[in-house]
Every structure is written in structure tokens, then in C-alpha cells.
């Protein structure tokens, strides 16, 4: 989980809120888009880490079987 992506999600939420308060639909939509993009990046990073962990696990199993 990336701290940067969490920050970007929060920033998008603030931007969305400001857009709602001011009636600026463009700013609101930009905030929503920033939140969604940051969440997608976070999910992709988590998936990548999970796959890398699984690969390391398989490598360790193979190393044990070779001994």
C-alpha cells in the first residue's frame, strides 16, 4: 500500500468536496477521477506485490526440493 497513493486519494476527495461546495462540477469530476486513478494504482501495486511474493514462495519450495 503506497502512502503516496493514499495521499493522492485524500487530495482527490478534498478536490471533489470543494467542487461540491462551490458548485464547480469540473473540479468535482477531477477530484473523483484523481481518487479513482490513485485507487487503481494502489490496487495494481498490491497485486504486483502479491504475485512477487507468490513467485518467491515457489522459488523457495523448488530450492528445498533440490536439496
Question: Low-confidence runs (pLDDT<50, min 5 residues)?
Answer: none
Tally the structural domains.
1
Number of helices: 2
**Broad structural category:** mainly alpha
So what's the oligomer here? Answer: single chain
As a whole number of angstroms, the C-alpha radius of gyration is 19 Å
Which terms summarize this structure?
67 residues; mainly alpha; 93% helix
Description of the structure:
- The chain is an all-alpha fold.
- It has one domain (about 1-65).
- It contains 2 helices and no strands.
- Helix 1 packs antiparallel against helix 2 (about 25-65).
- The longest helix is centred in the last third of the chain and has 42 residues, at about 25-65.
- It starts with a helix and ends with a helix.
- The model has no long low-confidence stretch (mean pLDDT about 90).
- It comes from Streptococcus gordonii (strain Challis / ATCC 35105 / BCRC 15272 / CH1 / DL1 / V288).
- This is CsbD-like domain-containing protein.
- InterPro entries: CsbD, UPF0337_stress_rsp, YjbJ_sf.
SSE order and pairing:
Blueprint: H1 3-22, H2 25-66
Q: What does this entry show, briefly?
A:
The protein has about 70 residues and is an all-alpha fold. It has helices spanning about 5-20, 25-65. The chain has one domain.
